Every structure is written in C-alpha cells, then in structure tokens.
Amino acid sequence: MKFYLQVFLFFFTIQNFAQINAKVQDSVTKKPLPYVNIWVENENIGATSEENGVFVISNEALNKTLILLCIGYEKKAIKLSENNQVFYLKEAVQQLNEVVIESQKKTIFNTISTFNLEEATTGFGIQLAPWIVGRYFEYNKDYEKTPYLNKIKFATNSNIKNAQFKMVLYVADENGAPGAYLYNEDIIFSVPKGLKETTVDLSKYKIVFPENGLFIAFEWLTIENNKYKYKLKEFNSDSYKTAYRYEPTLSAFTTEKFGNTWIYTNAHWRKSTALSIGKDKGSFTTLAIETILSN
Q1: How many CB atoms lie under 10 A from the CB of residue 55?
Q2: Are 208 and 117 in contact (CB under 8 A)?
Q3: Which of 168, 249, 285, 291 sits CB 3.0–4.6 Å from 125 for a disulfide?
Q4: Has this prediction a pTM greater than 0.85?
Q5: Alpha helix segments (H runs only) across the chain
Q6: Cα–Cα separations (whole angstroms), residue 38 to 17, 33, 148, 201, 265
Q7: What pLDDT does residue 132 have?
C-alpha cells in the first residue's frame, strides 16, 4: 500500500464559532467576485468567497486587517469592522502583449521537470485558512527555443470528487520570492477523487517563461464544495469527534536540500522549512510538478 503523509495539515474539531458574513465585489460593476482568497494579516485565519462573492470568516478577524488577493485585481488591505463588510476590488491595469503572427512550424517540446508518482510520498494540505504553495523554476537561456508554457502536470490526493483548485503563475521578484502575476486570469479546474495526476494545458495562452524565473503555484479554495468532514479519534480516548478539512492534498517528494518551494500563509510568503518529525526529519518538501515548454 502506498504511504501518503500529509504535512502542514492541521486538524480541528468543528465547533459553533461565531462567524461574520462579508462580500467581495468589483469596484466598478459591483458584480460579486468568486474565489477571492482572504487572509487575516499575520494570523492563520482566512476564507474564500463563494460564487456569489460571499465569504464567512471567524469573528476573531473583527477589527483586524484583511488581505484580499484575486488575479486580475489589485491587492487590497482593509480592516474588517461591523460597519464595513462589503469589500470592493479595483481591476488591475494590464499591459497587453504585442501579438506576433508567425507561419506554422513544427512544434518542439521541452520537458524541464518531471516526477515519479511512486516517489511523491508526502504533500501539502490545509485545514483552516487558504494557502498558496509554489515551486520556483530558474530561467535557462536554452528556453529561447521553446519559450512558451505548454503543459503542467501535478498530482493530488482528494477524499471528494471534483475538488476545485486554482493555479497561479508568478514572476520571481528581486528577492527571489513570488512577485507579480505572470498571467492575469484565473486558471481554475477540478481534480478527481483519490491519488491522481492532472494535466493543465496552457498552450492556448501563449505564456512566455520569464527571464527572472517562474513560480508555478497552487491556491486552495476554502469553499463549501471543497469541505471534507470526517471522524477524528480523540487523543487517549476511544471516542471520536467530527472534524473537517479542505481538499485536495497536493503531492510532493522530499529532498536533502531546499527544493525551491515557497508558502503563502498568514498573508506573507516564506520558504518551506525542513521537516521536523517523521522518518524524513531534516529533509525538505518539494512540489511534484512536470513542466513542458514548447515553441
């Protein structure tokens, strides 16, 4: 049987915590914005807006600064108060790339990273607040021959069918951390139940691999559709409690050195640290991603 350890996964019992309903809208059209992730700055509290723009967050967030992130919109930092529960995001100014029409030519593919699913025995999962986990890929001059992102393959382990997931592409900033969005539209898709591989075809977007380096990241959505409820055995007891987490778990493998994996949590990016427990203690967790470029 395949051993599959979920790291960075925190279990909590479902309780009747006081909660606040709020909403995210476009600042001009006033249309609701779905799948916006919200974090309380410097705390492991967060939420995701549903299709109607509404999100539910713990009242512990009251009078604290919320960070709202949505591709295609400007990042917003705003305090949550009893009188301020509708948040408006301003559309980001986008620079249109010049369209170059070329004669049809033979397609060349270049696989710059791959993984073996049997070796992807660890992973990233969430419970309370949405996370973003990304892996950095350094630019190579040889990519000039195949500059476009063609396909990205990864693996997930999910206890539910059709868990929704978001892929985000970033350009590395001057400090080597995820910086500006490389592509300013949501790439949202569903993943199957069980331990499965998923391939996302990016060929139609004509996304060029940036010379500063690329982060391929995955963003969890803490929406009702992704919630998984289960029975959790209490410590030193024969009784069970109802608990929940948000699917899916993202597959990874371990390496002896830092594997260029970064995590966005508590509204800040940080490098993934070495494992502190288990048989792989001292090793690093690296996202299992296959990346294919083309001309």
Answers
A1: 26
A2: no
A3: 249
A4: yes
A5: none
A6: 18, 12, 31, 28, 10
A7: 96
